[in-house]
Amino acid sequence: MEVNEKNIPIExxxxxxxxxxxxxxxxxxxxxxxxFDIEKGNLLLKVNPEQWDQxxxxxxxxxxxxxxxxxxxxxxxTYPFCCTNxxxxxxxxxxxxxxxxxxxxxxxxxxxxxxxxxxINQIGSVEVINDTLETVLNH
Length: 139
Fold this sequence. Notes:
InterPro entries: HMA_dom_sf. It is a single chain. By secondary structure, the protein is an alpha+beta fold. It folds into two domains: 4-79, Alpha-Beta Plaits, CATH 3.30.70.100; 91-139. The protein has helices at 15-25, 54-62, 81-138, and strands spanning 4-11, 31-37, 42-47, 66-68, 76-78.
């Protein structure tokens, strides 16, 4: 029996996707081996070319929210709930960081405003003293 290797690029993936991809791909007719590399975003399959049908794999994986992209014919785009949740966590973390930075910037601006007000008050006091001295010296 002849066995061919197929590499399928996958976008938007997480650890849960790895398990789904490996387990479900092995259930596709003609697939004898499935290994997903999260870092590379690549699904390696060993298939029997006489039984293998890539579109059948795509149709099968659609059940798990893996869809074929229109602009990249041989790439799968996945957005199952696990990836959506991971992305939401990243977005929430970025929002928290932005809010924290905005708060720090606001506190820093308030401190600078207080310092400026204090300087202005000191300048005003110095002007009053100078006016008083000038008045005293002129009389």
